[in-house]
Amino acid sequence: MRSNPPELPPGTPAGERRFSLALFVFLVGGLFLVYAYFLFTIDDTFITLRYADHLARGLGPVFNPGERVEGYSNPLWMALLSLFAWFPGGLLLPAKFLSAFFYLATGWILIRKSEALGLSPWPAAAMYLASLSLAVWGVSGMETSLFGFLLLLWALAVTDAQPGFFRVLGLALLLLTARPEAPLPLLIGFALLAWKRQLPFLLVIIFSACAVSLLAARWAYYGDILPNTYYAKHFQTPARWQITVFGYLRRYYLGVGLIPLLGVIAAFWKRKSKRKTPGKDEVGLFFLSLWPALFSMLVGGDWMPLGRFLAPALPVSIWFCVRTFACARTFGCGRIFGTVLWMLALAVHFGINWKAAEEVQSMDFSFPSVARIQSSSNGNPNYRKISAWLDSLPSPPASLAVEELGYFCDYFSGPCLDLHGLTDAHIAHSHQYPNSVIGKSLPLTDPGFANTELGEYVLKWNPEILILDVRNSQEKTDSLLRGHYRLTTAIGNFNLYRRTPRATPRDNRP
What domain range includes position 495? Predict the structure, then answer.
């Protein structure tokens, strides 16, 4: 693929000054967004932190000691966080700082690569800062920014003139352990390398052996080849599949797909005058930015927030657009008109991402003290009130059964039963039952997580405290709980039940 003619030769004093100024503006803007969203934390973060903490303490990658259930979908991130177990005050602060680091590092790579090709670094910096979904999830303490960082490095490697054997293999193995959906961009990258005749057979053999070994290790330890979270979230009914898949695709083309669409237009416009089709690297980058849409077609039942699901694809999409668009000069329609067109596209992208970010978390400019960060729970004060109620009990409860498990497991270190099934294999594999008893599911937004059989399972598990969201409760709940639990208090939208003395001992937990 021919690159666009350099605007300023790389390495010249003028080019270095331009790069330094763009990098400075990006760092100021990036740090501002990190500060504005730093209090945002979701329940999945705390679940991962608990797994990392248990791994560091020698209990293994488990949520409840003795129960081997893979209730996380980010092995690489979880293992990385376990290295910070020595940090005083828990793993939340290291997780948030580390995710913020990868968010900023990804933007730095985009700007540096633009400068290395002699392109203006301003489009990459502007589009990256305008992608507010990246900033929100980039400070959540989750693996989103690390995954986006690795995807960008992967895209740069497979489109390089000399990819390098160990570079490609190392990135492929890291991606394989970063997220369950990583095989899709990996296959696209391998296909591009094979198309360019740059895929050594030995690399395929080594990677395949490592992938099979990973699956074998997962099966040996957890008894399954897929993470338990897949079964908990993948609840397919025709109506739900339709709603979720179309929702993903709509959000993709609005929030992410606009960028590669600009790149496609620019690529074809550029090649039209030269009577050539887009190059192989351009085609590969386009499909590497398209993989979330393909993934949504395969697992449309996932309840993951759409912004978090799509955010890792944004850096690759931005690089594809910058590489083909080259600050609007590709259109050959004049610098002024092209720049205006670029700015309009940037404004639309920013507006869409602003709306997506606001759906998750509004900007907060108050000082993020350590106490506020450690007590952050997605802006819901009820979780902190419930934790205070648990602390006020004469003796700490032996076990909990809750919805939205992550927010509570950060306050409670004992055994927890997740009624959504993220960390419980029995509930996760029982989603074929449509009628719920311990909580009423929202059929088009959340999977069902309980029914009569599962209600009996919960009673056998016999948690001392049962915390239910009243928005999901129904009349059958009372008949099931009568004689086993009594309503102790209500905090916000949560009812807190406590086990009655005549309940079955917890030793009978399945």
Answer: 381-508
